[in-house]
Write a structure and sequence with these properties.
The protein is built from 5 helices and 13 strands. The chain is an alpha/beta fold and 222 residues long.
Amino acid sequence: MRAMILAAGRGKRMMPLTADTAKPMLKVNGKPLIEYHIERLKAAGISEIVINLAWCGESIRNTLGDGSQFGVSLIYSDEGGEGLETAGGIINALDLLSETFIVINGDIFTDYDAASLTKIALLPQQAHLVLVENPAHNPNGDFSLVQGFASSDSDAEIKHTFAGIALYHKSFFANTKADFLPLAPMLREKMAEKLVTAELYIGNWQDIGTPERLAEINQQEY
């Protein structure tokens, strides 16, 4: 199984920190966020990792190289200067990915054990999402969890936040093309067809979406 780390985002909310730095290269306790993901994926037994590149992508490639320093093989998917949004970026990299693959947002910090995802058999379901308790910046959540399935029901009493960690089967992206394409509408469509399962993770998870959140996490010890 291969994994993909999403690293192509512009990081506008992180300005000015991302003026000349890719968001996943921002540091927590002196180490780029993306390196934590690489190390955790390796610990989960995943040795081939795809990283998509757009904004300041060469800084990621130049720093991480071929991955040998981490004991993995890094494969890069270039999207040009503007990027293709989340779904578009994944679709653009499909030929580089295994039939079932893990996707992790490059701008989160978590101790979630990706090894659990390698044990999930999808089909007939096409995706499995990791949800977390709602952080202060997203109090209303994104999706609900109903008997093991993710739901986008707007009337759901309890919703959780999508952690930016998921397992996909390539069939999830069938009949699509690499273009500027967000992921959320696709997820909602598949949820309506009962093709998306989910779990709630109660553990360390933080979305490093603003300079203030980055400063806060750097005041903690890991």
